[in-house]
Structure formats: structure tokens, C-alpha cells
Amino acid sequence: MDIGQLVCFLLARDLRLVTAESCTAGLIASTIADVEGAGDLLDCAFVTYSPAAKQRCLGVRAETIAQYGLTSEQVAREMALGALNSGSANLAVANTGVADSVDPEVPSGTQCYAWAFAKPGGQPLLYSETRRFGGSRHRIRRESAHYALCRIPALCVQFAIGRP
Predict the structure, then answer these.
(1) pLDDT digits (tens, 9 = 90+) for 36-64
(2) Using CA atoms, how far apart are residues 29 and 129, in angstroms rounded to an integer?
């Protein structure tokens, strides 16, 4: 599915998107914004590189960062929930990771994602996963942003999100 088709898919399901990005630094939102009609879909975008920004802007707990590290699904999940709670969007996509790492425990290209879907009258549905991409820093960031978006339709179908 290309990004234009993704925008149509999301609009047909009455989904409004907020992003919470670290490693991709706004590429997820920018990729959506390249498509005509994106203004009807994209609510807001957070770029939170530093731990302090993740805490201040998205409510990520210092304890989560200390226990699991910045590049973790746990941090991505709190980023997604913080973004979802920030406004009127009913879908949040979060990404945190490294494009070039000196930490032997977190290989270069490691990307952690979380998707949060608002459920009327209930707790948000939350899904997370970790992927690893190869190549240059630019390629890792670009592929990571594309993956974050292109994963949404399968999750919508899997969890029966929005109108079919």
C-alpha cells in the first residue's frame, strides 16, 4: 500500500493521527503531509529526542526510561499513550530507536514502535513491536517511518478498528 492509499484507508475509517517520534524526527508526519488531503488526517506531531522532552511533552516516566532504556517498546508505548491523550486524535504512532549505535546492547537500526487506538468508552488498544533495519542512517530513518505507517492497516483489520 502506498502512502496515498494509506491516507484514503485511514480517512475511510474516520481515523485521525498523532505521531510521537524520536529517531524518525518527524519523518512519519512528514510522509503523511506529502499527500493531498493529509490535513484531514494529521492532528499533531511530536518530535521528542531527549529523555527530558519525552517526559515533559508525552508523559514518559523517568522510571520507564531508567529501567528499559530510551530504545525500548516500553518507552514507545508510553510515548504513544501520551500523544493519544494530547488532543483529538484517535490513533497514535510512536517510534524510538537508533540509526547508528555505539551501545553493544542496542544494535544500529533498532527501532521500537507503538500504535495506540482510542476505544470509545474504554482503555486505548495498544500494540508494540521492535524491528531492525540496515543501511545508512538516512535509509534506516526513512524505512522506519514508512514501516510505522504501513503497519497501520493490518493492525486496524486485526483489531477491528474503524469502519471497514
Answers:
(1) 988 999 999 999 999 999 999 999 999 99
(2) 19
